[in-house]
Amino acid sequence: MTVTTPLADLGDDAMTLPGITRIESHPREVATPVLVDRLRSVYPHQQIYGDYCPVQGYVDAPPRELYNWLSDTRSLEEWTYSLRGFVPTDEPGLWVGRDRLGDHTEIYTRTIANPHAMTVDYHCAWDQGKHLWMIYLMRVVDAQVVLDKPGSVVLWHNCHHPFYDENPYPETAPPERPVWVGDFWDMFSAGHQLELENLTAIAEYRHHNGLPITPDWMRS
To answer: For residue 159, how many other CB atoms are within 10 A of its CB?
Structure first.
């Protein structure tokens, strides 16, 4: 049987696998309280993180295989909470998908990866693909080197670009969209930790069950 959709290789486990929170199983009204619960009001986000949002974690999966999966833009359909339906644009290397956090919102993404350092940088923007100002910086590290055990360490960093505060291209936005991506900045740390848990759960499930980390549908 040909696997043609994200996470199809996981079967029914894709909806119930512990540690995965995706918009299909947890609509925004369900996921928001989960994120809020992870935030501590006595420690304001701005005081702790300011202009930076780092998350990191251990993944029990081979680093090179993990890097190969993440370096494909379509992997975002699997481990992110709300990015779906990526297709290539007419511009080489530029993809467009949907961010279901925003009603009828397109997200443009170009992935810049370095196989030697195993860095994966997602350059993104809502609504338009000319200025990709949302930069998601990731690195896969061999855990044998830094933790003296097999597996991977994933380092993920975001910076608070000024455009998070105000949409620089309002003319490209869908009419009457109620939210802007920057409205969620204070929840980025909790949201990205949740997505890193998704990434970990998916990669470890595949590795532990003898499945390729990069699924068949992404190899076409």
So the answer is: 14
3 state DSSP class of 191: helix
Residue type, position 33, single letter: P
Contact assessment for residue 3 and residue 14, using Cβ atoms and an 8 Å cutoff: no
Dist. CA 186–CA 49, nearest whole Å: 9
**What tokens were used for 107?**
């997200």
Domains of the chain with bracketed CATH: 8-164+176-218 (3.30.530.20)
Beta bridge partners, 52, equal: 159
Query: H-helix or E-strand containing 178?
Result: none
Mark out the alpha helices in 117-185 (DSSP H runs). Answer: 143-146
pLDDT 10s digits, 155-206: 999 999 999 999 999 999 998 898 999 999 988 989 999 999 999 999 999 9
Q: Classify strands 134-142 and 119-126 as parallel, antiparallel or unpaired.
A: antiparallel
